[in-house]
Automatic annotation (TrEMBL):
The keyword Transferase does not apply. Keywords: Signal. This is VCBS repeat-containing protein. Transmembrane segments: none annotated. Gene3D superfamilies: 2.30.30.100. SUPFAM superfamilies: Integrin alpha N-terminal domain.
Length: 401
């Protein structure tokens, strides 16, 4: 059964909701992290014992915390690991040196985006995990440009994880390519429009080479950079969205085997969908859907299959759509959209036609009059082969299913 982990920033704890087989959850079990202010969390099997552990960032006190799972849904007290002089706010885990985190020189790599200008990479080996060694490898530092976000992927076909760094302050993205032994070459910088905010990776032109799409919030566009297969990217192609696109998601909405793009537009409260010729329209091409927060709508861009997309098709939503997820909710083999509407205190489900069009949304209340749902995800929590929805309610400090 799927469980849920959350960070409780206001009371310095992390919480776990254990899932039952009927789609319900236990009361929250909390674990204090002392004076830390937890900001983000990641779930991973850090010590190869087939149990999922928690690792989180603590904003303001320059460390991260690790909680090991006992195997019964409970966790150890947090172990704090210093991040030096940087305050981390984002985290991701990956096996960068392909040693299944058992080797003497590795362990799972823990990335942290600090508050200022350095990314740290620290492959830890804890004595609880590795009896041969109780030492730590030295931290490796990589310069980045201004306030940044990042994700990992494999760009050249060398089976080594690479990093995408979104440099919001300098209107660029950087890609340090990975080698063996968790080393990286200097970042290749690609300039973007103003306000790059988030990125996603997919094969938009069906050439089996990864491409990148980014939201450029100040320019009200998303841009696609086509990959060459050697770690380099082509010139960006821009596509208009609603006002201030922040987050995006990729899927084949129209079952045409091509990726589509959906973007959430903060200012106009809309989402934008670019079908990638593209899958909202059943042409087996990837398309894009977005939540346009400022315009109160969602948008779909249908993909052509050559990294180009149609103009955005806009579907009216409720006030301030903030995040978006994709799933087949009515089991008709056509993708649907669900949107969390922050100001309306609800979520909206748009059922797909399969031709790139969506039905008028059906809304569901997410809590009280001030629930303010800001994040959403889709999974089968009750093991009944029907998709369920989980959302975080910022205004009430709850999660809802």
């Amino acid at each position: 059964m799927l469980d849920i982990a959350v960070t409780n920033h206001g009371n310095n704890s992390v919480g776990v909701f254990l899932g039952y087989d009927n789609g319900t959850f236990s009361n929250q079990i909390t674990y204090s992290v002392g004076t830390a202010s937890p900001y983000a969390t990641e779930v991973s099997d850090l010590n190869s014992d087939q149990r999922m552990n928690l690792v989180g960032t603590n904003r303001g006190i320059n460390n991260i915390d690790v909680l090991l799972e006992y195997g019964n849904g409970t966790f150890t007290s947090p172990r704090m690991l210093s991040t030096g002089s940087s305050s981390s706010i984002c985290i991701a885990t990956a096996d960068l040196n392909k040693d299944n985190h058992q080797g003497r020189k590795g362990g799972f790599g823990i990335f942290k985006i600090p508050k200022f200008k350095t990314i740290f990479y620290e492959p830890y080996i804890w004595e609880e995990f590795q009896v041969e060694s109780t030492s730590f490898t030295r931290r490796k530092c990589f310069s980045i440009l201004g306030f940044s976000k990042f994700q990992t992927s494999v760009f050249p076909p060398d089976n080594h994880l690479d990093i995408i760094v979104i440099n919001n302050g300098t209107a660029s993205i950087g890609i340090p390519l990975g080698f063996d032994e968790v080393t990286f070459e200097s970042s290749m910088i690609y300039h973007t429009g103003f306000g790059p905010y988030s990125a996603a990776v997919g094969d938009f032109n069906n050439d089996h080479i990864l491409d990148i799409v980014i939201t450029e919030s100040q320019d009200n566009i998303v841009s696609v950079l086509v990959g060459y297969g050697n770690g380099y990217l082509g010139k960006q192609s821009a596509y208009s969205t609603g006002s201030h696109p922040y987050f995006l998601a990729l899927s084949d909405f129209n079952k045409d085997t091509r990726l589509d793009i959906v973007a959430g537009n903060y200012n106009d409260k809309t989402i934008s969908i670019l079908l990638g010729f593209g899958n909202f329209n059943n042409e087996r091409l990837m398309d894009i859907g977005v939540a346009n927060s400022g315009a109160n709508n969602v948008g779909i861009f249908l993909g052509y299959g050559n990294s180009l997309f149609t103009s955005q098709m806009v579907f009216s939503g409720d006030s301030t759509p903030y995040s978006i997820a994709v799933g087949d909710f009515n089991r008709d083999d056509i993708l649907d959209l669900v949107v969390a509407s922050y100001a309306s205190n609800n979520i909206g489900v748009f059922l797909g036609y399969g031709k790139g069009s969506l039905l008028r949304q059906k809304t569901f209340v997410t809590g009280g009059s001030n629930s303010q749902s800001i994040s959403i995800a889709v999974a089968d929590f009750s093991n009944d082969n029907f998709l369920d929805i989980v959302m975080t309610n910022y205004g009430e400090n709850t999660v809802g299913v």
